[in-house]
Design brief:
This protein is α+β, with helices and mostly antiparallel strands. 44% of the residues lie in helices and 15% in strands. α2 (25-33) crosses α3. The radius of gyration is 21 Å and the shape is elongated.
Length: 229
């Protein structure tokens, strides 16, 4: 067995026995790179990626184009590094939807957090429910720059109708970490409620998420037919 083969096997066994608790960021990235670089020492590449992007999160959030510019990063490594956060988001969404309660703010957080996992741009999602708050589906409506995301009313309505929804919850993220609603967020919520009401489609809430918080816009708008949490 080659020197690097023994090192790889020891790291695999350490992970299987204790998870990643004892792993530094560079060793975590090194373990991940084993699967795109089947031979050789990947420790220098792990260090190069961390030096370039600042942290493990920075590496996983980097664009494919930026990753490919790092010497030693090939197509397989780019795919692996972008697959990992996407797969994690899918896993969180699948796990959360087993026991969700869309009528609570915490339940809405569980529904939407996987949608915004690792997001760098502002995005808007729609969750559709029946009258008993059974989740019927979640769809992305739009994606914009870091400070703006336009909502297509036609797409919102067609999405809700495709699920035969009775009520919907709109969600968007603030990548800058400030969950405070803007004037535009508030006016959009008012307009959506007025637009959907004649269609017998209830806007239950509009929420804003950051990595740490979820904010309900009903705290800022007094809408009589939307219950308070």
């Amino acid at each position: 067995m080659a020197l690097h083969d023994g090192h790889r096997e020891r790291m695999r066994q350490e992970f299987l026995q204790g998870g990643l608790d004892s792993f530094s960021e560079v060793r975590t990235l090194e373990l991940l790179l084993f699967f795109s670089r089947p031979q050789g020492d990947v420790n220098p590449l792990a260090h190069a990626l961390l030096d370039t992007f600042g942290s493990l999160a920075g590496v996983l959030d980097a664009s494919p184009e930026d990753l490919a510019r790092v010497p030693g990063v090939g197509k397989n490594t780019v795919v692996l590094l972008k697959l990992f956060p996407a797969l994690s988001a899918k896993y969180l969404a699948s796990r959360a939807r087993k026991t969700l309660d869309g009528s609570t703010l915490e339940g809405l957080r569980e529904i939407f957090m996987p949608c915004f996992f690792g997001a760098r741009n502002e995005m808007t999602y729609l969750a559709c429910f029946d009258n008993s708050f059974k989740l019927l589906g979640v769809r992305k409506l739009s994606e914009g720059g870091p400070s703006a995301s336009d909502i297509s009313l036609r797409k919102l309505v067609s999405t809700a109708l495709s699920f035969n929804a009775d009520l919907v919850v709109l969600a968007h993220n603030h990548p800058n970490g400030d969950a405070s609603p803007s004037d535009r967020d508030l006016s959009t919520t008012k307009q959506l409620r007025q637009y959907l009401q004649p269609l017998e489609l209830r806007l239950h809430d509009h929420v804003i998420l950051t990595d740490e918080k979820i904010i309900s816009l009903q705290r800022y708008l007094r809408i009589a037919d939307i219950p308070r949490y």
